[in-house]
Request: fold
Amino acid sequence: MAKFEDQSIYIYNSLTGKKELFEPINSPHVGIYVCGPTVYSNVHLGNCRTFLSFDTIIRYLKFLEFKVRYVRNITDAGHLTDDGNVENDRFVKQSRLEKLEPMEIVQKYSIYFHDIMKQFNALPPSIEPTATGHIIEQIEMIQTILQKGLAYESNGSIYFDVQRYMEEGGAYGELSGRDIEELMAGSRDLDGQDEKKNASDFALWKKASPQHIMRWNSPWGEGFPGWHLECSAMGKKYLGNQFDIHGGGMDLKFPHHECEIAQGKAANNCAPVKYWMHGNMLTLNGKRMSKSTGNTLLPDELFSGNNDLMDKAYSPTVVRFFMLQAHYRSVLDFSSDALTAAEKGYKKMMAAFELLGKVEFIEGVVIQSEDKEIRDLCDSCYKEMNDDFNTPKTIALLFELVSKINTYADKKSFGQLSSETFNYLQETFFGMISEVFGLELESTGDSDILDKSIQILIDMRAQAKQERNFEMADQIRDRLLEAGVQLKDGKEGTTFSL
Ligand code: AMP
Ligand code: ZN
Reply:
């Protein structure tokens, strides 16, 4: 039996505030652009949540056999905290701090990002363009907007003229719901306040001050592109003037994506995107995880257990599973308890995964009601994923299948299903878990042996300490560290991380 046949997917479109039937512009091709990281520091778990949400969405579309072109950029220039003060250029600032070239900063943190994404088993994008690699395309787009009279030059910088755009029928604020009157009346940025006609105008190009080391030639002198422009230029280049899905975290709705819509419409006379999708935030202690406030946890700190928040290490797969248990549009709070619970659930699910892979199907007497129940549960997994990618409900259904699988295995009687249903069960269960959710089977057998062996050494070290044989205790600790096992002494005894 093939996959569930009804492939009508409904996507919550942030632009309309409604779930809409997904109709790709050129089905079965799907073009999707996700705003990538700004690589001036390590990505934190909050960033990872957004990238993993879109990874699951892309995986599901591929699973349904859509031909996906997935573009995720690297922001390696121009992302300022305001409209142009060099002190606020994150790359310049960080390169001074670390005494490295800005491009060394970019390279260092891009490597970290890629490494973490790989550990999370996230699919790489089809194209990963960088802002600095597309200066020409950005300049061309600015020229088009200037020709249309929707931007103006001021002191070597170019600003988008929001008022003019509105006069010509534009709807700045359509995505974020911001009130344009308020935006126009808003206070001006400290830098460049004399340059802009209106407070709501935003930079397409900024003139570089003499100290600004990230600079490129342009028809308007040396400068650098505005942050919003890079995504418009690269989206257009690789996905066309209008493409299917644009994603990012909710915090990017304004001004970033609002500006992208205005730029796209101004340059190409059409809305750049059909479906805008925004993931919700990962919080820590109830507050948004964010680089600027320092309320963050780094993925590698979590994988190694080397942090003050968690009492043990968690594998990337468990963290991924934890994230999937919340819908991408819901806030998710990070806590040690929630992760421990996720780990338990993950192990239970993967034990059934292993079991279902090992059983041999022997034809038996089919119980019709049972057969139908399994088919309905499998169908429902697709229905939930088709409903704006509802991963928590799909996981709940998979757990119902876990109970069924365990019962059949106990009774050694998968034979009460027709072979067709058994195949459908395998296809759905394996497909959802490994292909769509990207969860990998950790070899629980081996890791159990490893856990137990390390525990024996921890006990022996404790005994050595008790006998005041500190030399031996230290030797155990040091040799374990050499072998890649770090011990951590805490209130509740010694734990370890690999
Ligand atoms: P940045 O590197 O700051 O450009 O952010 C990269 C991505 O991470 C963007 O899509 C942000 O919306 C997203 N992001 C930032 N903080 C969080 C958070 N706490 N939870 C989820 N996504 C986040
Ligand atoms: Zn972007």
